[in-house]
Amino acid sequence: MTNRRTLLKTMLGAGALAATGISMPSLALADELETLKEKGVIRIAMSGAYPPFNFINEQNEVVGFDPAIGEEIAKRMGLKVEIITTAWDGIIGGLLANKYDAIVGSMSITPEREKVVDFVGPYYRMSRGIFVTKDSKIKTLDDLKSATLGVTLGETHEQWARDQGYNVRTYKGLPELMLELENGRVDAIVNDDIPVLLAISKNDAPIKELDVDLGGVADQAGIAIRKGNPELKKAMQDALDAMQADGTYLEIANKWVGGDIR
């Protein structure tokens, strides 16, 4: 099988459980699908700070791969979309508090998260990457032991870095992470590789990926919904499967990411 990272870099040549401590929610009294159909709208949440997957453009619109996926799924369910941006470290808590109906924000599927929410998908796969400035003296994972790593608060990469015993500094999203790295306030950043590599290519940023083995595919991104909603989960999964089968998914991926990331 062709190395995924090689494919990604060729393509470029042409985003810890945030809700740790949240108790298991009680099962919904009734499936929410019918309620959503009555309202005609599904509210989906994301950080809005994870380009090109979700970000706010110059017209103050939330755009990117995630909103496009969410909007297409909703359209196939006969629903309109309301996009809500919120801080990543509290996003699961907001879902459980009924502030929105789903999280379509590049959320990694983990056993910890599956204890409190259900997932539709996965709708794409990602690899963990460590990035440093081009003139950095950091070459190996051992070099990171004396370094400061920037991570997004509440992402699985934060927990991974802490588990390794690294010195961690947390931030709100990828743009801030990259700025802190370029300005020398952190020595390295840990993030999903795709958005960072795309940002490097687009902005000619003086950043490179550390050539180390982190074990291949780190995570799969899923759409989180509240537990106890099998009909809603099936309707969303059926819509996702259909758009992947008929080529719509690939069109969206080509537009926002530059290639297939399933």
Could you say what the CATH topology of the largest domain is called? D-Maltodextrin-Binding Protein, domain 2
Run of helices and strands: HHEEEEHEHEHEEHEHEHEEHH
Shape verdict: globular
Helical content stands at: 25-40%
Number of domains: 2
**Helix/strand class:** alpha/beta
Word description of this protein:
The chain is of the alpha/beta class and 262 residues long. It folds into two domains: 159 residues, Periplasmic binding protein-like II (D-Maltodextrin-Binding Protein, domain 2, 3-Layer(aba) Sandwich); 91 residues, Periplasmic binding protein-like II (D-Maltodextrin-Binding Protein, domain 2, 3-Layer(aba) Sandwich), CATH 3.40.190.10. It is 35% helix and 27% strand. It contains ten helices and twelve strands. The strands form two sheets. Strands 1, 5, 6, 7, 8, 9, 10, 11 and 12 form a nine-stranded mixed β-sheet that branches. A three-stranded antiparallel β-sheet has the order 2-3-4, covered by helices on one side. Strand 8, helix 6 and strand 9 form a beta-alpha-beta unit. Helix 1 runs parallel beside helix 8 and helix 3 crosses helix 9. The longest helix is centred in the last third of the chain and has 16 residues. The two termini are 15 Å apart. The N terminus is likely disordered.
